[in-house]
Amino acid sequence: MAHDHDYKKEISKPGRAASIDGGSAGNAWGGLSGPPDEAADNFRGLPGNVHEPAGHGAEAVENSQGPAGHGGGAAESPCGPDGDGNTADGRPLSCVAATAVIPESAALGPFCSLGEGVVLGEGVVLGSGCILEEGAVLGDGCQLGHHVTVHRGVHLGARVRVGDHSTLYEGTELGEACFIGGNSSLGRRPRPAASSTVKVQADLPPLNMGCACTVGCAAVLYAGTVFGERSFVGDGAIVRERCLVGEGVIVGSGVTVENDTRIGAWTKIQTGSYITAYMEIEERAFIAPMVTTTNDNFMGRTEKRFKLVKGPHIGRAARVGGGAILLPGVRVAEETFVAAGALVSKNTEARRVVKGFPARDVRPVPEEELLP
């Protein structure tokens, strides 16, 4: 009995399935099949016999893949040039919807699924088990690692690389030459706790990242946020919804940036800092490791707190030392130097050094340290 479906068959090409850095080194995917020059830098191809069962070639595949008593000739399978679920070299096939656009130069690993209206550019490489939902568009030279999920309407510019087991949620847009590490989630929508006061925005726009951005492994970036070109997000960082992150910003490993926050261009936020919701950091600021910012003087009590919730404002080229704490609503003026471990409980003056617990003004910032 033949299935009623509109899938066409796409033969996977040996030696072209991808695995991004931090993926499957040391397991069965190691090594290259085919000529080495067919494998992209930092990618590992698939050995030619990885997916073949015990035995040799097509004979063993027929015995293991076909229904009992029928070998490889079953017509029921939705994949395979002969309806047997296997390519000519014995690998299980990817399934590609009839309206998908797949150029000859694209390479699909086994077990991929491409939905209606998917468009792949020239030279795209998909690792094994990739899922591309309807309307996804991948520009020329994009490379996806193993088991990457690309939800509907995602748009990737040319030469984007995405690591193993990452997920790109609906409508996410990545500019050219972005790099996304493994196990990251991009464009996810918020799902707050039942007791949370955060209101979910039904019409939250998709995540948008400019060209040449880098995202490490296990990072989580929410929908509704915009990243400027050449932004960097470290391993394990979280950037919540409705944030605006300027060009060249560095968000270090393990940093959390809460919702509705603005970060100016070329600002650096170092490892483990906590950037609270509803705050603004102007351009070229420096936030050292483990800085804590806060926005609620009532710590969850009373109704009037909702009108008064406000994070700190950090001025242009201000520097905040390691382990410092900034209380709700304080303004750290332009070119302020906040010493390590300081507790900033009131506004500072421009180009002044503050230190202590609580912080106090001690001297001017040296002229040679000021930015033009």
Automatic annotation (TrEMBL):
InterPro entries according to UniProt: Trans_hexapeptide_repeat, Trimer_LpxA-like_sf
Basic and acidic residues bias spans: 1-13
CDD domains: LbH_WxcM_N_like (cd03358)
Protein name as it appears in the record: Bacterial transferase hexapeptide (Six repeats)
Gene3D superfamilies to which the protein is assigned, alphabetical: Hexapeptide repeat proteins
Taxonomy, superkingdom: Bacteria
PANTHER family named in the record: ACETYLTRANSFERASE, ACYL-[ACYL-CARRIER-PROTEIN]--UDP-N-ACETYLGLUCOSAMINE O-ACYLTRANSFERASE
Species assigned in the record: Acididesulfobacillus acetoxydans
SUPFAM superfamilies in UniProt: Trimeric LpxA-like enzymes (SSF51161)
Transferase is among the record's keywords: yes
Alphabetical UniProt keywords: Transferase
Record field: compositional bias (Gly residues): 23-33
